[in-house]
Amino acid sequence: xxxxxxxxxxxxxxxxxxxxxxxxxxxxxxxxxxxxxxxxxxxxxxxxxxxxxxxxxxxxxxxxxxxxxxxxxxxxxxxxxxxxxxxxxxxxxxxxxxxxxxxxxxxxxxxxxxxxxxxxxxxxxxxxxxxxxxxxxxxxxxxxxxxxxxxxxxxxxxxxxxxxxxxxxxxxxxxxxxxxxxxxxxxxxxxxxxxxxxxxxxxxxxxxxxxxxxxxxxxxxxxxxxxxxxxxxxxxx
Length: 237
Description:
With 237 residues, this protein is of the alpha+beta class.
């Protein structure tokens, strides 16, 4: 069995992502810490943490990688009807703490979002790196949400929840179009799911994903203020 490197919290580094295991797919390293510096270094190199409370910190870079190119977002006919009804409003960075905790508490299968992770990603939010996206119903109630990291022209989606039918799908459509307007190259979805694939996400080889990161991670987006302006055009669509 291939041995995995244990990361020293006092040394800021990662092994190359292409050294990750095939089984389990993408497991790259253990240990280290969740400092903001280490997390940013990880995402810049196609790596993310995913572990449970009873485990050491596990670092992953799966192959293939599930991604969504913003211009490839898919809007089904039924979802167009929902959008035309204008049942939802989408905002950003209004309730990061609430969103990340709901992402942790609403998953029936349990969560990897530990208290340590909540603290670290909340600090990234204060630094302007992590963002929350909220979706509201007509009564002004939270219908769903998502959080992730924005570095360069890359957005790294971390977790999403939905409290009402189609809320997460409407959120994804607004986010993809907004990212496209701001000049973002890619939305990282990490691991594929049926929900993501129906929205237009697809898997690409890890090396292709890393190549996109290298080209885009140091490029400043067209807008750094996370105020959503994009709106669904309406019935004429």
